[in-house]
Specification:
Chain A is α+β, with helices and mostly antiparallel strands. Chain A has 5 helices and 15 strands. In chain A, the strands form 4 sheets. A 6-stranded mixed sheet of chain A has the order 7-6-2-10-5-8. In chain A, strands 1-11-4-9 form a 4-stranded antiparallel sheet, with no helix packed on it. In chain A, a hairpin with a 3-residue loop joins strand 6 and strand 7. In chain B, about 25% of the residues lie in helices and about 30% in strands. In chain B, a hairpin with a 7-residue loop joins strand 14 and strand 15. Classes of the chains: A alpha+beta, B alpha+beta.
Chain lengths: ~350, ~325
């Protein structure tokens, strides 16, 4: 599951980052693409986009319309219902298709040589501007059907019209940068997730293969030894202590000596000074018939004077060990004989 | 980790805001008016109307009213002018209790509003219309209902009030136009076949009483005609019916025997238009705007309110 999440985050991060970078590259620092000026050949009094030609929303558009000799000109964008009613009876050039960056299909529509009224006198323009020789608008396309109208004002017409168009996303460059950073962040998180999974997998593998050899000296201090050194010694106790899989916080906790170091509480195992010195337990050495009640973990190892010395121990009812001499053995009955392994 | 994911999710959501998108469901339509525009229309209407009242001149009204409302109010102003009466200004505390804006794909645009006049205890159910892109918003219908009269809820589609074509009778006993014609027929003749489908409401009773009074004049032949004009505004109600604004043209014609003259009381609108009375023959023309409710199903149409008055008087003698 974590592996899948890591890959998903990484792939998503790459996609988001690439799209952010692409946005930045395509739009540039001014967040828009500009084309023009383009000449539009007409002697009509209006140039308008037909209904449904503009099909985008939330696009930032800047349109500059220019005519020669400082002729008065008006440019506006409004709901198509309004624009069509306003220019519906006027002679006009209608843009029937527009393809980016600048590919137009147009048709001439016959009509009256004047508009129904002054475009500057109506209140339904979403954005509009009028000027001498040129006018421009800068607006974000709304989520409704709109048309753009370039209109002559007064008795002039639109001959010599040139149009410059810019379109893009408001704050697009910054949004692209944000997307890029966001993608990189996602990628980073994905890699972190993947590395976490891999480290855990490696840890599990190590646990299966790694063998730690420890020898405990007379004072109970553990010493890690190599496999070669261990081969020269007799193996007394072999413990297998896998690290719990649920603990991801300690992936590198392989050489934990504690689990191996804690001597198992069998009373016979306590006195282990030298591996080769441990004699095979004498069957008759353990006097008490009762099995050892509780492991005596806290019981310090008995001092073993000589490696060759055989020590006899009996465990009383309270689990306390008592060293007995070889002579006293006769008084006890051997009940149990532990294999030191 | 979870916080980081939350931040990333929020960032993605914010980044998606106002993202340019291609509109596949392009339809040429427009909501008649936005709320701010409606408020502006009301403010302008009251301002101009008060100016006209102050000047006692109906001419400014033509910039905020049209059709029957303008004709009725102009008649009212002419009465005031001739009788040298001053009308009360429109400064009463009003409350716009409902605004319904249909969507249209072509002009004219219009919207519906209910204005409560607390001083008079009436609701004005109004229609403002913009006939073309270069025309201002004009009040074109304003029947009044009593304050306690319930106005049927309007049905909406895609957030906009749903208009009904005048000849659309689906889900109703008759279309708005047929209901208007039937209503006019019953007003003109109580025994008309349409009387079976139009119950007598208070407006019908009031008009019949007036007609009976005029017919009772000695030496006078009285004739009253009613005609329903084309229904321009109708909205679908939530019960599947329609709320229609019907304009009725009423003409009262008097034929007076020689040697007689009929006159009206001082200060009455009729007297203002026919100050010398009628000797011979004459006609008074009225316009009445009736708010007609056609219930969904098989219910009979009935009037919820009206607004009307004398618009002209003619002495043919």
């Amino acid at each position: 599951m974590r592996t899948w999440s890591g890959w998903a985050l990484s792939v998503l991060g790459v996609v988001v980052a690439i799209s952010g970078a692409a946005t930045m590259v395509v739009l540039g620092p001014d967040s828009r693409l500009t084309t023009g000026p383009h000449a539009i050949e007409t002697d009509a009094i209006a140039v308008v986009t037909a209904p449904k030609v503009i099909r985008w929303a939330d696009v930032q558009v800047d349109i500059l319309a220019e005519v020669p000799v400082r002729k008065p000109i008006f440019i506006g964008i409004g709901n198509t219902v309004d624009v069509q009613d306003f220019v519906g009876e006027a002679q006009r050039l209608e843009i029937t298709r527009f393809k980016r960056p600048w590919d137009l299909d147009t048709r001439d529509v016959e009509g009256a040589p004047n508009l129904r009224g002054a475009p500057t006198a109506v209140d339904w323009w979403i954005d509009s501007s009028a000027g001498l020789g040129g006018a421009s608008i800068s607006t974000q396309l709304p989520d409704e059907t709109v048309s753009v109208a370039i209109l002559s004002v007064g008795s002039s017409n639109l001959s010599g019209l040139e149009v410059t168009l810019a379109y893009g996303v408001r704050g697009g460059f910054a949004k692209g940068a944000a997307l890029l950073l966001l993608g990189l962040a996602l990628l980073w998180v994905g890699v972190l997730v993947l590395r976490g999974v891999r480290a855990r997998g490696d840890e599990d593998d190590d646990l299966e293969e790694e063998v730690v050899y420890v020898y405990v000296d007379e004072d109970g201090v553990e010493h890690e030894i190599s496999a070669e050194e261990a081969a020269d010694l007799e193996v007394v106790e072999e413990l297998e202590e896998p690290v719990e899989a649920e603990d991801p916080a300690e992936p590198a906790a392989v050489p934990e000596p504690e689990p191996v170091a804690v001597p198992e509480p069998e009373p016979v195992a306590v006195p282990e000074p030298e591996p080769e010195a441990v004699p095979e337990p004498e069957p008759e050495a353990v006097p008490e018939p009762e099995p050892g009640p509780e492991p005596v973990a806290e019981h310090p190892p008995e001092h073993q004077p000589v490696a060759e010395t055989v020590m006899y121990v009996y465990v009383d009812e309270d689990g306390v060990e008592h060293e007995v001499s070889e002579d006293e053995l006769a008084e006890f009955e051997i009940v149990d004989e532990e294999d030191e392994r | 980790m979870r916080r980081l994911l939350l931040v990333l999710t929020c960032s993605l959501a914010l980044a998606a805001c106002a993202v340019p998108h291609h509109r596949d469901d392009v339809s040429v339509s427009k909501s008649a008016a936005r709320q701010a525009e409606v408020t502006e229309v009301f403010d302008r209407y009251r301002e101009v109307r008060n100016s006209a009242i102050e000047l006692l001149d109906p001419k400014p009204l033509s910039t905020v009213e049209t059709d029957a409302v303008l004709a009725i109010d102009t008649g009212s102003f002419e009465v005031s002018q001739r009788l040298a009466q001053k009308q009360e200004g429109d400064t009463a505390d009003i409350e716009v209790t409902d605004v319904e804006t249909p969507r249209f794909d072509t002009y004219p645009l219009w919207f519906f509003a209910v204005v409560r006049d607390k001083a008079l205890g009436v609701n004005r159910v109004q229609i403002f219309e913009r006939s073309s892109s270069v025309e201002p918003w004009l009040l074109s219908a304003s029947p009044e209902t009593l304050g306690e009269t319930a106005i049927p809820a309007i049905r909406h589609s895609s957030g906009a009030a749903l208009p009904v074509a005048a000849d659309d009778g689906r889900g109703m006993s008759m279309s708005a136009q047929d209901a208007a014609a039937a209503y006019a027929s019953v007003l003109a003749d109580p025994d008309a076949p349409e009387a079976a489908t139009i119950p007598d409401d208070s407006f019908i009773k009031q008009m019949r009483a007036t007609a009976a009074t005029n017919s009772a004049l000695d030496g006078v032949q009285f004739k009253q005609t009613w005609e329903a004009q084309d229904v321009q505004y109708a909205l679908r109600t939530s019960d599947g019916g329609a709320l229609a604004f019907v304009t009725l043209l009423r003409q009262d014609t008097y034929a007076v025997e020689d040697g007689l003259t009929i006159t009206w009381p001082e200060g009455s609108p009729q007297q203002a238009f026919l100050s010398q009375g009628i000797a011979g023959s004459g006609t008074l023309t009225y316009l009445h705007q009736v708010l007609l409710y056609i219930p969904g199903g098989r219910g009979d149409p009935r009037a919820l309110g009206q607004y009307g008055g004398v618009v002209s008087g003619e002495d043919n003698s």
